[in-house]
Design goal:
The complex is a heterodimer. Chain A has a single domain, classed as MetI-like fold (Orthogonal Bundle). In chain A, 84% of the residues lie in helices and 0% in strands. Chain A contains eleven helices and no strands. Chain A is globular, with a radius of gyration of 22 Å. Chain B is an alpha/beta fold. Chain B folds into two domains: 161 residues, P-loop containing nucleotide triphosphate hydrolases (Rossmann fold, 3-Layer(aba) Sandwich), CATH 3.40.50.300; 66 residues, no CATH class. Chain B is built from nine helices and ten strands. The relative contact order of chain B is 0.17. The chains are: A mainly alpha, B alpha/beta.
Chain lengths: 256, 279
């Protein structure tokens, strides 16, 4: 218990100290809220708008989760095909890399026009595209980078390619997949949030940040930012939890 | 799994392994052509223990892979118990162990040993029973439900050997299985292997680059040399019942010296030039 506490205390202490300095600087130098609102102002706004903030957080988190799931499923299917057929790999890899490099700000307006702007669909698609690449890249690597001795063993046991895929390649890809997910999960939250900046339903965190700032309600804008950070951290922690649960299968990869 | 127990089978007319004029040439006809095996012929008798020894690049691992049907000979043929190498692999007439234990982290120790049986469609209860039998034989029954990564290197190799024995094949093919172990563990594993072989009567083809290991384990040591990979000597080892005292026996040292000299005489005379292109 005490070694755990000794791990928890330092970051909390440093965080509190940073907040105190922040508060001191803002009050001391009389910095205007549009430049940097004081932590106390943000805290007041969080408390005052708790209900709306929670709704906005749930909305954006739902978009991120849907996009994450669709992106993951697409990436796993593409990874399976790419590891089986080199043609697919050569075709999909540059496409996925290219798509990942397209900025969200360019993608979102296009999807807003292509799909119903009043729905969640364009945002979910943008998120799925952002998620696709890191997951695809890692899953493909995990499916193909199997130690030679393990493949030779399976061939010596007269195992068919499909059996090797089921018993070796897919379980081998699990730890690689989790590595990809660790990158993709926080990205999904950012994508879902930024995608809200380009019109459509206004109940998400991104839309709320934009409209609060436009109304010079900087304290409230920052209160939504705090919620966005919490949602991002929550997604990241969920991946860490998955990693912990998968440990019996990925043991060595974790141990080293 | 034991439809053809070794000891009850009638004494077969064909050797356990027969290699007939085997050539393996990589990139044949290209400037990068490498003759990995040049006209290799050797027989392994039933219940015989053969060690393949030679410098790196002499083709000893390639030779083992030809027997295992993991690579095809360019010319010549390999048979296992009278079957073509391909048929022998399909019918699981050999078990194989590698330098890397090649265990699967996502399976328990027992389920790793069960794998060959699982691929043959052996019912769950029967394969669990067989796996426990084998784990008991290699002294790891208590670790059946552990994960491979919780075991030491020597223990992992013992699991790999148990797995190679799972379908009760008449032949064991081993590619430097103790190469990554420390000396103490290595000697213990050698005794263990000899005991298992004594209990099961398997024929063994064992690749190594350790002279004492080859002499200690084998009935015959096949000495190979590199570029092109070929057999330069076959040395029978005449030692009584192996045991710790064997390692200090006069005859052991004599055999070690003979193998060492055979390895030396197999080297090209221009030692400097032979190093060029060492892979």
């Amino acid at each position: 218990m005490s070694p755990r506490l000794s791990l928890i205390w330092p970051p909390i202490l440093v965080g509190c100290a940073a907040l105190a300095i922040w508060q001191g600087v803002v009050v001391g130098f009389g910095i205007k809220p549009f430049l940097l609102p004081a932590p106390s102002l943000i805290a007041t706004n969080v408390v005052d708008n708790a209900g709306v903030i929670r709704e906005a957080a749930v909305y954006t988190a739902t978009t991120a989760l849907l996009g994450l799931l669709i992106g993951i499923i697409a990436a796993i299917l593409a990874g399976l095909l790419a590891s089986r057929f080199i043609v697919v790999k050569r075709l999909v890899t540059p496409l996925a890399a290219g798509l990942a490099a397209v900025p969200i700000i360019a993608l979102t307006p296009i999807f807003n026009n292509m799909f119903d702007i009043t729905s969640r669909t364009p945002r979910v698609l943008v998120t799925a595209i952002i998620v696709f690449f890191p997951v695809f890249e890692n899953v493909t690597r995990g499916l193909t980078q199997v130690p030679t001795a393990q493949l030779e063993l399976m061939r010596s046991l007269n195992a068919a390619p499909a059996t090797i895929a089921r018993l070796v390649r897919i379980p081998n890809a699990l730890s690689f997949f989790l590595t990809g997910l660790k990158v993709a999960a926080p990205l999904a939250v950012i994508a879902a949030l930024v995608a809200e900046y380009f019109g459509g339903p206004q109940q998400g965190l991104g839309a709320r940040i934009a409209s609060s700032a436009a109304n010079t309600a900087y304290g409230r804008a920052w209160a939504y930012v705090v919620a966005a950070i919490i949602v991002g951290l929550f997604f990241y922690l969920m991946v860490l939890l998955l990693e912990r649960l998968a440990r019996p299968w990925t043991g060595r990869a974790r141990a080293t | 799994m034991s439809d053809t127990p070794v000891d009850s089978a009638p004494a077969p007319a064909t050797p356990a392994v027969e290699l007939n004029g085997v050539w393996k040439i990589f990139n044949e006809g290209l400037p990068t052509e490498v003759i990995a095996l040049q006209d290799v012929s050797v027989d392994v008798g039933y219940g015989e223990f053969i060690a393949l020894i030679g410098p790196s690049g002499c083709g000893k691992s390639t030779l083992l892979r030809v027997i295992a049907d993991l690579t095809h000979p360019t010319r010549g043929e390999a048979t296992v118990a009278g079957l073509s190498a391909a048929a022998a692999r399909e019918q699981q007439r050999y078990g194989m162990a590698f330098q890397q234990a090649a265990l699967f982290d996502w399976r328990t120790v027992r389920r790793n040993v069960e794998l060959p049986l699982e691929l043959q469609g052996v019912p769950r209860a029967a394969r669990a029973r067989r796996a426990m039998e084998l784990l008991t034989m290699v002294g790891l029954a208590d670790f059946a439900n552990h994960r491979p990564w919780e075991l030491s290197g020597g223990m992992q190799q013992r699991v790999a050997i148990a797995r190679a024995l799972a379908v009760d094949p008449p032949l064991l093919l081993m590619d430097e299985p103790f190469g990554a172990l420390d000396e103490m563990t290595r000697e213990r594993m050698q005794n263990e292997l000899l005991r298992i072989r004594g209990e099961t009567g398997k024929s063994v083809v064992f690749v190594t680059h350790s002279i004492p290991e080859a002499v200690y384990l084998a009935d015959r040591v096949v000495v190979m040399s590199a570029r092109p990979g070929r057999i330069t000597a076959v040395i029978p080892v005449d030692l009584p019942e192996r045991g710790e005292q064997t390692r200090e026996d006069e005859r052991f040292f004599v055999a070690v010296t003979r193998v060492r000299e055979a390895l030396r005489s197999g080297e090209p005379t221009e030692v400097g030039r032979s190093r060029v292109g060492e892979v």
